[in-house]
Design a protein that fits this description.
This protein is mainly α. The chain has one domain. The protein has 12 helices and no strands. The radius of gyration is 17 Å and the shape is globular. The chain starts with 5 loop residues before the first helix and ends with a helix. The mean pLDDT is 84.
């Protein structure tokens, strides 16, 4: 990777490897781990840009694999299109806000996600309400994904609350992320966030993410979902605390 020494490359590879393990074990959530790690060592713009191609490729693969399982097509497309539009606003915010402010935003977004998961582990949303909220939730998720690289507090939590089965969940979230990534890339190029160097690095970053996804699948089968979930939440809490500390001190 041009412009990066061996330690930089190792950190990036480890961030995407951890993200791949999480995605392989749960079917989603790789940016929740990888983006805070990268943002902690570099900055949020770099982290969000580097995740564009891996996010696009892995969700396209999952969309091909699980697309036929989508029996809520209208719901899925409404969620994805709203996310597509929201990602545009989010990318503008990514270009305009300071790196420190974005870093604090990432930390707070992750903490909100952790808090909600701990406070409402079994919360379920009625499908009637889900259909009413799908557009605003998709738009908010797109804004977060575009500005901070992490939409999980909105997108994943919203879909989890409906209790979709795994194939339907993966089909819906993959279409959402695919649509968001499709809009992010040209806007990032327009604002100078994505250049050729970062694009090449983003392409290379696909490798550790995809290589470690099967590892995550194996771990996911051997650990109970509750234990694995708690491990990830502890890791995220540590990363968030470190970012908040760095912002203020």
């Amino acid at each position: 990777m041009t412009g990066l020494d061996f330690e930089n490359i190792l950190v990036i590879a480890m961030a995407f490897a951890i993200g791949g393990i999480l995605k392989g074990a749960t079917g989603a959530g790789a940016p929740v781990v990888a983006v805070p790690v990268l943002a902690l060592f570099y900055n949020v713009q770099f982290a969000v840009a580097l995740f564009i191609v891996p996010n696009f490729v892995t969700n396209l693969i999952q969309l091909i694999q699980y697309g036929k399982s989508d029996n809520k097509t209208k719901f899925s497309w409404a969620f994805a299109i709203a996310g597509f539009v929201g990602a545009g606003l989010g990318t503008v915010l990514l270009a305009l806000l300071s790196s420190d402010m974005l870093l604090l935003t990432v930390a707070l977004v992750v903490l909100i996600y952790i808090s909600f998961r701990l406070a409402h582990p079994h919360w379920q949303l009625d499908m009637t309400w889900a259909n009413r909220l799908v557009v605003p939730m998709g738009a908010l998720g797109g804004i977060l994904q575009g500005a901070a690289g992490i939409s999980a507090p909105i997108s994943i939590t919203f879909l989890n609350s409906i209790r979709l089965d795994r194939p339907q969940f993966i089909a819906t979230i993959s279409l959402f992320f695919f649509g968001v990534g499709f809009f992010q890339l040209p806007l990032q190029i327009w604002y100078g966030i994505m250049d050729w160097e970062r694009f090449v690095q983003s392409c290379i970053a696909v490798l550790p993410l995809t290589v470690f996804m099967p590892v995550g699948a194996i771990i996911g089968r051997r650990l109970s979902p509750a234990v694995f979930d708690r491990i990830i939440l502890v890791l995220l809490a540590s990363l968030s605390a470190r970012m908040i500390w760095g912002f203020f001190f």
